[in-house]
């Protein structure tokens, strides 16, 4: 969701997400809201706030109640999407192979799976030996996309995280 999206809250009416001003690391969760003034959609749940590292705005819509866990789960989705991107265009570029034979395509996927396993094992070794920053120029980007060390809160109210820079969002319990 973008910052200019309209949401409707019971007792509050319509407002845009850009009307909420967050410092880095602040987040809110709203439950049972409506979306889009022109074409009503709801009841949904949203989590939105600013990333603690780069200040980037995140807004996530869900059909399940949102918590900080929502940011973590959404970060995991990036991992899956990157794998698809590697298979399709960025890495292996399967579409350009133009293979029509099922057996040949099956063999190609097997070889690609082995190659992926190999590079994953190598990457794991690099991380385990503490040398990731030597080979990964996008280390900070990876940390921003995968907020895996989030504290989980039950109640969604804002609390500033000034002391722990490894957390990207924090909601006060």
What does this structure look like?
The protein is α+β, with helices and mostly antiparallel strands and 173 residues long. It is 35% helix and 21% strand. The protein is built from four helices and seven strands; from the N terminus they run βββββααααββ. The protein has helices at residues 68-90, 102-128, 132-135, 139-145; strands spanning 6-9, 13-16, 27-35, 41-50, 57-62, 157-158, 171-172. The strands form two sheets. It has a five-stranded antiparallel beta sheet with strand order 2-1-3-4-5, with helices on one face. Strands 6-7 form a two-stranded antiparallel sheet. A hairpin with a 5-residue loop joins strand 3 (27-35) and strand 4. It starts with 5 loop residues before the first strand and ends with a strand. Mean pLDDT is 75; it is low at 142-167.
Largest sheet features? 5 strands, antiparallel
Euclidean distance between termini CA atoms: 25 Å
Q: What is the number of E strands?
A: 7
How confident overall, as mean pLDDT?
Answer: 75
Radius of gyration: 20 Å
Summarize the helix and strand pattern as letters.
EEEEEHHHHEE
Oligomeric grouping of the chains: single chain
Task: State the helicity in percent bands.
Answer: 25-40%
Shape designation = elongated
Structural class: alpha+beta
Count of helical stretches: 4
């Amino acid at each position: 969701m973008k910052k200019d999206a309209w949401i409707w809250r019971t007792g509050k009416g319509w407002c845009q997400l850009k009307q909420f001003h967050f410092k880095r690391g602040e987040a809110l969760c709203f439950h049972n809201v409506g979306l889009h003034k022109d074409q009503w959609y709801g009841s949904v749940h949203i989590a939105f706030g600013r990333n603690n590292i780069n200040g980037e705005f995140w807004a996530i819509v869900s059909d399940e109640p949102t918590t900080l866990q929502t940011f973590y789960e959404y970060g995991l989705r990036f991992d899956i999407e990157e794998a698809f991107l590697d298979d399709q265009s960025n890495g292996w570029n399967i579409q350009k192979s133009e293979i029509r034979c099922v057996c040949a395509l099956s063999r190609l996927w097997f070889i690609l799976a082995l190659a992926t396993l190999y590079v994953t094992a190598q990457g794991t070794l690099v991380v385990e030996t503490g040398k990731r920053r030597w080979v990964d120029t996008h280390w900070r980007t990876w940390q921003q996309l995968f907020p895996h060390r989030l504290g989980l809160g039950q109640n969604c109210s804002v609390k500033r995280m000034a002391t722990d820079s490894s957390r990207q969002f924090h909601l006060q319990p």
